[in-house]
Specification:
Largest sheet of chain A: 4 strands, parallel
Distance between the termini of chain B: 23 Å
Strand content of chain A: under 5%
Number of domains of chain B: 1
Largest sheet of chain B: 2 strands, antiparallel
Oligomer: heterodimer
Largest interface: A-B, 39 and 21 residues
CATH architecture of chain B: Orthogonal Bundle
Structural class of chain B: mainly alpha
Strand order of the largest sheet of chain A: 2-1-3-4
CATH superfamily of chain B: DsrC protein, C-terminal domain
Order of helices and strands of chain B: EEHHHHH
Helix content of chain B: 40-55%
Number of helices of chain B: 5
Shape of chain A: globular
Helix content of chain A: 40-55%
Number of strands of chain A: 7
Order of helices and strands of chain A: HHHHHHHHHHHHEHEHHEHEHEHHHEHEHH
CATH topology of chain B: Arc Repressor Mutant, subunit A
CATH class of chain B: Mainly Alpha
Number of helices of chain A: 23
Radius of gyration of chain B: 13 Å
Strand order of the largest sheet of chain B: 1-2
Radius of gyration of chain A: 23 Å
């Protein structure tokens, strides 16, 4: 950006090492949050006069409270295993985007104020005095990390590098340098209930409109209930599912599956958001406040179960942190996972045989699947290790005849970020998003060349939006990215729909015809 | 980045969305469109007017799908589709058309 280079790198291989481009992304800064957006979250409106003391104080407080963070600051031996694992480094060539170098922007300051050697012999250990320039360097480079944690997979010490990014962002917000995109959104969740700022009346109208669409398409009346007290299941889904393409098609898929499964369910207008950007900005209190809305909605509606829609980081918060943040959920039915992932729900129904598919409805697609970083590296979808990889693929194969995996070093736990995660899905970072997506796009191009893959499915709202924006730059249509439940929706034949009684498929084909693939 | 319309300055944020929704006028829409390299014509006006009417009622822009469905009824299927909307507004019917319509930017994972 700083050097005006907005070229998307041409890569011959998804993990091809770039040439060094020192300073290539220097000075790139997403818009800083306005005083209004800052103060709404309890942060100072602008850079505080005593920023130096406050920064060091906050850093010390985080290291004290979060032992993992302190360990991660202390134990890196700079072995270099992580250097070439970051999609932003591969895409930009800026050495400060090597995870070890990016983390050292903060570590070097930590060493200066919190370690013996750094306090007395800073020149010996590369310890740096904190300056205002360094704050801006942090702001720039810690917003060139999507907290995807691919580098952590390869760290022999298991350093969770995203924790460093989160801490840096938290410190910055506390001294008055918050990020506009994330903080404005979090404010909307507190005020209205979702990232979009979609009020209850508009949500109701949208859902009615979608019910109409399903009926027009299938001839069957399928409800998308809103604020129904006493429903069994509360669906918590990203608000993008009510608004954007291809997200909405996924929502139609959830509705059809619930309908066929014969369960009672509802969406909540109070907790109309699965996403939790509190995690992106590394702020526990914000993350907790957003999570508590889900608890309140579940209690007010008297539901027995909570199911999460397709959203990557939301599932990480739900799977790993929800109980700590907003639990205990002892008022829910403990016979079901608390919470449950929609793909787990759907896969269970497929296994039970309650869903009838015509896979040929997806024959115009040759599919691959993009593992979303937070789902892949932080959670399971079912109750066994690796279920976060298998269940989405199982579901896709149950509804599509043509499925092919991308190269193994770019999938599963080694999946590449879409390039827009971690709170970077903002237009002012488009150059970074394009460059950061090039490793994933190169992997996709490989399966397109080898297997004629035309479409990629994802189960994360951010991935879907990011890909619909960047794919046209890589030779695909913007609708080449699809929701997993969009594929389910396409193939699902509802009771009462034309073709339901035709015996036009055999059961084996339904689950076992998984040609090729991995 | 502010706009100047008929000698008057209209405040906008860094991304060009006007700060005070009450400042909107047809002349302003033309000025914003020009800054976006877009020439307003009947079809673009139809989209912008639909967005403004929807916003009046619901305090948010419609989902792209809802917008397209409504336009399909008035413009016909050749023009009431996603592809055509992106021809009209290359940066997306939701974001770019909202900007011209003087509405807030849709935020979130969209």
């Amino acid at each position: 950006m700083a050097d005006g280079d907005t070229d998307i790198p041409k890569m011959s291989h998804p993990l091809e090492l770039p040439e060094f481009k020192c300073g290539a992304m220097e000075g790139l800064e997403p818009y800083i949050a306005s005083p209004d957006h800052q103060t709404a979250l309890g942060f100072p409106g602008e850079l505080v006069p005593d920023w130096k003391e406050k920064t060091i104080e906050k850093m010390g407080e985080l290291a004290e409270k979060n032992r993992a963070f302190k360990v991660y600051l202390d134990i890196c031996v700079k072995c270099g295993s992580c250097t070439d694992k970051c999609h932003y480094y591969l895409g930009t060539g800026d050495p400060k985007n090597m995870p070890v170098a990016r983390q050292d922007l903060l570590r070097s300051v930590y060493r200066r104020y919190f370690t013996f050697a750094g306090k007395y012999f800073p020149w010996l250990v590369g310890a740096r005095d904190l300056t205002e320039e360094i704050l801006h360097e942090w702001y720039s480079y810690y917003h060139q990390c999507s907290e995807c944690r691919r580098c952590s997979v390869f760290c022999p010490y298991g350093i969770d590098t995203a924790e460093i990014t989160m801490a840096a962002r938290d410190i910055l917000a506390h001294v008055g340098i918050g990020m506009k995109y994330s903080n404005e959104i979090i404010g909307k969740v507190h005020q209205i209930g979702n990232n979009l700022g979609l009020p209850a009346k508009a949500l109701g109208a949208t859902l009615e409109d979608l019910e109409e669409d399903i009926e027009d398409e299938t001839g069957v009346s399928v409800r998308i209930p809103l604020d129904v007290k006493g429903a069994d299941i509360l669906l918590i889904t990203p608000s993008a599912d009510f608004f954007a393409e291809p997200h909405i098609d996924g929502l139609l898929g959830y509705a059809k599956v619930f309908h066929e499964a014969g369960v009672s369910w509802t969406v909540s207008s109070y907790a109309s958001e699965a996403a939790n950007f509190g995690m992106f900005i590394g702020n526990y209190e914000q993350m907790r406040k957003i999570s508590l809305r889900i608890r309140k909605a579940a209690q007010d509606l008297g539901v027995k179960r909570i199911v999460f829609g397709e959203c990557g980081h939301a599932w990480r918060v739900a799977y790993s942190f929800l109980n700590t943040l907003a639990g205990p959920f002892d008022f829910l039915d403990q016979n079901y996972p608390v919470p449950q992932h929609i793909l787990d729900f759907t896969w269970n129904e497929i296994e039970k045989g309650t869903l009838k598919f015509d896979k040929s409805k997806n024959d115009h697609y040759r599919m691959t699947y993009h593992d979303s970083c937070n789902v892949a590296r932080a959670t399971r979808i079912g109750d066994y290790p690796g279920s976060q990889f298998e269940i989405p693929r199982n579901v896709i194969r149950a509804v599509c005849n043509n499925y092919f995996d991308m190269p193994r070093e770019t999938t599963h736990e080694s999946t590449l970020c879409c390039g827009g995660g971690g709170g970077l899905l903002t237009d002012d970072l488009m150059d970074l998003r394009l460059k950061g997506s090039s490793p994933r796009m190169t992997a996709l191009q490989q399966v397109t060349e080898e297997h004629g893959v035309t479409h990629m499915a994802a189960s994360c709202a951010i991935c879907k939006t990011q890909f619909s924006k960047v794919m046209p730059k890589f030779g695909y249509e913007m609708d080449s990215i699809v929701s997993v439940h969009q594929l389910v929706s396409n193939a699902l034949i509802l009771k009462g729909q034309d073709g339901y009684d035709d015996d036009n498929q055999d059961e084996d084909e339904n689950t076992n015809n998984t040609d090729l693939g991995e | 980045m502010d706009y100047t319309v008929n000698g008057e300055t209209i405040a906008a944020d860094e991304e060009g969305y006007i700060t005070n929704l009450g400042d909107w006028s047809q002349d302003l829409a033309g000025v914003i469109a020009e800054a976006e390299d877009i020439t307003m014509d009947d079809e673009r006006w139809e989209v912008v007017n639909f967005l403004r009417d929807y916003y009046d009622e619901y305090q948010i822009a419609p989902a792209v799908r809802v917008l397209i469905k409504a336009l399909k009824k008035t413009m016909g299927p050749e023009k009431g589709n996603n592809k055509y909307m992106y021809e009209l507004f290359p940066y997306g019917p939701a974001k770019q058309a909202c900007k011209i319509a003087g509405l807030p930017k849709p935020t979130g994972c969209v």
